């Protein structure tokens, strides 16, 4: 951290969220609009995410070792440019088959050259004593960038719409959402330029963190670590929770009876919680124990999920609705901020970070494959409030399992406080 400037982390934060704006953030903020303008139901959108997840799964595995052989900045920049290109296809509102192919393409561009290099670069910035801050600021900062894109998207959408929002036609929605997509794609490409020029390490540091080749013995060395297997479960459960938060804007429309713009604003409110949680939890983790706060994150998300799952929240209780969103988001984002921050505690070598991240992600990010269709199935088979309650029971289950795995990680590695 001492030898790596602050602007390095700032550009990493910008890149870290920008790359996922097109495939994920826009559909999180504008889920009802996306379903309408692409003529999809929840299951079909979920299957698009599944195609992304299948391609991403392979990309995690083959991309991990690539991150241990090459400097992260160039890999990240190319990934951003390729992802932005997909945005121009997205803006043509392709049919369902082409849309699934596009999500497969994004599964490659956002993971193969991007994910492991981003995690490794963050570990480098955090050094031996600031892993909590590094990953807390990364995830919190990514949340702030996502919130910016959400606000920008809602503003652009609102400006293009000339009629009352309740009277908007599908063609008007398409015209407005097309502008949101094009502006987003342009910004993603611009962030790629920043990554190319500013995500640089000095030559000595690059030599220290890069391997000439990855051997089978090094992979076996990583797989012998209990921390790697526990992190697979922890990340799977935390990431499943994060994917389930995609449903909040739809909940606002179907249960709280909000219109398109209001439901998008709910999605944006969710994004603003993330930076707050990331910064606070990162500071707390470095001052005490990241492993302990990881357990707390799962407990909080479990309690929030139960609030939504037990029919307490209705259209007549907007304050409780937003309070419960805040509780769920706090728990989910806390766990998400810290699950890579505890790698240092788990005795995972820095030089093998990319390979380790690739292996962990094979299991940890499988919610990209199953979470979308699972939510779609629950929502379509039990329309209205009942389907949403089923989704939040699913969140409660993942939070419970993740909490047990995080508690065991804490028992094994919690006392290894970094100095």
Description:
With 419 residues, the chain is mainly α. The chain has one domain (6-413): Up-down Bundle (Growth Hormone, Chain: A). It is 78% helix and 0% strand. It is built from 19 helices and no strands. Helix 1 crosses helix 8 (131-160), helix 8 (131-160) packs antiparallel against helix 9 (170-198) and helix 12 crosses helix 17 (353-364). The two termini are 13 Å apart.
Descriptors:
19 helices; Growth Hormone, Chain: A; 0% strand; 78% helix; 419 residues; globular; mainly alpha
Offer a concise description of the structure:
Helix content is about 80%, strand content about 0%.
How many β strands by DSSP?
0
Low-confidence stretches: none
Under CATH, the topology is which?
Answer: Growth Hormone, Chain: A
CATH C-level class? Mainly Alpha
Quote the average pLDDT. 87
Order of helical and strand elements: HHHHHHHHHHHHHHHHHHH
Beta fraction of the residues? Answer: under 5%
CATH architecture descriptor text = Up-down Bundle
CATH homologous superfamily annotation:
MFS general substrate transporter like domains
Q: Roughly how much helix do the residues carry, as a percent range? A: over 70%
The Cα radius of gyration reads: 20 Å
SS element count, helices: 19
The structural class is mainly alpha
Q: Indicate the overall shape.
A: globular
Q: How far from one another are the termini?
A: 13 Å
Largest sheet: none
Total number of distinct structural domains = 1
């Amino acid at each position: 951290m001492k030898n790596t400037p602050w602007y390095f982390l700032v550009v990493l934060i910008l890149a870290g969220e920008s790359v996922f704006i097109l495939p994920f953030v826009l559909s999180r903020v504008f889920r009802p609009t996306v379903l309408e303008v692409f003529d999809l139901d929840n299951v079909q959108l979920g299957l698009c995410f599944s195609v992304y997840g299948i391609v991403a799964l392979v990309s995690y595995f083959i991309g991990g070792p690539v991150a241990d052989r090459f400097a992260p900045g160039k890999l990240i920049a190319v990934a951003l440019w390729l992802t932005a290109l997909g945005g121009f296809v997205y803006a043509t509102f392709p049919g369902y088959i082409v849309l699934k192919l596009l999500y497969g393409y994004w599964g490659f561009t956002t993971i193969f050259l991007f994910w492991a290099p981003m995690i490794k670069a963050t570990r480098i910035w955090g050094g031996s004593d600031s892993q909590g801050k590094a990953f807390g600021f990364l995830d919190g900062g990514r949340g702030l960038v996502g919130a910016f894109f959400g606000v920008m998207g809602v503003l652009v959408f609102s400006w293009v719409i000339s009629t009352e929002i309740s009277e908007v036609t599908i063609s008007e929605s398409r015209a407005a959402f097309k502008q949101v997509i094009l502006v987003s794609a342009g910004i993603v490409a611009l962030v790629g330029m920043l990554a190319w020029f500013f995500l640089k390490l000095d030559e000595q540091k690059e030599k220290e963190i890069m391997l000439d080749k990855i051997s089978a013995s090094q992979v076996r060395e990583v797989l012998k670590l209990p921390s790697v297997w526990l992190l697979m479960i922890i990340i799977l459960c935390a990431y499943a929770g994060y994917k389930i938060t995609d449903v909040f804007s739809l909940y606002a429309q179907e249960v709280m009876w909000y219109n398109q713009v209001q439901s998008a604003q709910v999605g944006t409110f969710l994004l603003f919680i993330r930076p707050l949680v990331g910064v606070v939890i990162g500071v707390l983790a470095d001052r005490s124990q990241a492993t302990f706060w990881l357990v707390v994150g799962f407990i909080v998300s479990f309690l929030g999920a139960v609030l939504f799952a037990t029919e307490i929240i209705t259209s007549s209780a907007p304050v409780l609705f937003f309070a419960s969103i805040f509780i769920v988001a706090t728990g989910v984002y806390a766990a998400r901020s810290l699950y890579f921050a505890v790698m240092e505690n788990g005795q995972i070598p820095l030089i093998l970070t990319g390979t380790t991240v690739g292996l962990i992600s094979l299991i940890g990010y499988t919610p990209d494959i199953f979470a979308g269709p699972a939510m779609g199935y629950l929502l379509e088979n039990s329309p209205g409030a009942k389907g949403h309650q089923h989704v939040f029971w699913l969140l409660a289950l993942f939070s419970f399992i993740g909490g047990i795995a995080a508690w065991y990680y804490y028992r094994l590695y919690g006392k290894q406080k970094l100095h």
